[in-house]
Amino acid sequence: TVTLVTNGTETVYKSVTAKTAANTLIVEEGVVIEDLKVEAGNVVINGGKVKLTEIAEGSKVTIKSGELTIASGVNISVLEYEGGDVIDEDGRAVLGGTTLYATIADAIAANATEITLIKDITGSGFTVESDLSINLNGHKFTHKYADNSTGNTGFYIKSGSLTIDGGEGGEITFESNSNVGEKDGKKYETPLFPFYVAGELTLKNVDVTIYDGNQYGIYAAATASTKIENSSIINNNTSNKTNLYVIRNYGNLDVEG
Fold first, then answer.
1. What are phi and psi of 252, to 5 degrees?
2. CA dihedral 181, 184, 185, 190 (to 10 degrees)
3. Nearby residues of 253 by Cβ (< 8 Å), 6 or more positions away
4. Which among 9, 44, 45, 99 would be 20 to 30 A from 83, CA to CA?
5. What are the φ and ψ backbone dihedral angles of 126, each rounded to 5 degrees?
6. How far is it, in rounded angstroms, from Cα 118 to Cα 133?
7. How does pLDDT run across 116-155, given as a tens digit for each residue?
8. CB of 67 within 8 A of CB of 87?
9. Which residues are CB-contacts of 49 (< 8 A; sequence separation ≥ 6)?
10. Cβ atoms of residues 64 and 86 within 8 Å
11. Residue 48: which residues within 8 A CB-CB, separation 6 or more?
12. What residues contact residue 106 under an 8 Å CB cut-off, 6+ apart?
């Protein structure tokens, strides 16, 4: 194992090529590596600041604290996240297990069961049919509703469970749904159900905000089990006051905090 430490406030390495066989390069606080190439072995970032420009297949990177920048075109076989900041120059925003993906939907399609956001992200909803855990990691998910004519659900928990933990300051925003769909030659506007729950939903430490064109912040069917813990749901819908609900619940509901 090779550990890089600083003997002052900061030590900068312009370029490092690591070939530590089955051992590990540890980058401590105060150490900056502007160009790290990993030919073999693993890397642990424990407070340092690293730009990764090359890495061998099968090598693992663990970030406990500090900052990791992943250069464009670099794919890490195994990325273990325990804390700190991850900046991906290709714009990937989601860690599904130990693999980076562009979107939550991509991670779900790859059968990821634990998802962590590494930056703020914008996207559409998804369907949950097994157990899924999402850690917003203090980031914001902004939901954009693209096409009313194909459905009216944001996050559809069809079966299984969805747990969303905001971490420190995590947010979900459902933007205005102003699209008009068309069916049988007739135009219509179908409100979005941000959360439609037939399985289990748990919201922890997350603030949810809903804007115009949406209704029923959470619509929970008779089969649903919903738990809200230390979270808020604000419905700012001003265009559809007839159906303005924060929660419409027909199943089991548990609210704490």
1. -95, 135
2. -20
3. 220, 226, 227, 228, 247
4. 9
5. -160, 165
6. 15
7. 999 999 887 788 999 999 999 999 999 876 544 445 678 8
8. yes
9. 27, 31, 32, 33, 66, 67
10. no
11. 4, 27, 28, 29, 30, 31, 32, 33, 66, 67
12. 94, 96
Task: Give the span between the Cα atoms of 137 and 148, in whole angstroms.
Answer: 30
User: Whole-model pTM?
Assistant: 0.84
Six-digit token string for 231 = 């979270």
Ramachandran quadrant class, 94 (left: phi over 0; alpha: psi -120 to 50; beta: rest): beta
| % of the chain at pLDDT higher than 90 | 58
Quote the tokens at residue 29.
């606080």
Q: Tokens for 142?
A: 């902004």
Q: How long, in residues, is the chain?
A: 257
Angstrom distance (rounded) from CA 68 to CA 37: 13
Paired tokens of 18: 């690591």
SS3 193: strand
Both tokens assigned to 15: 């370029």
Q: Six-digit token pair at 158?
A: 């069809």
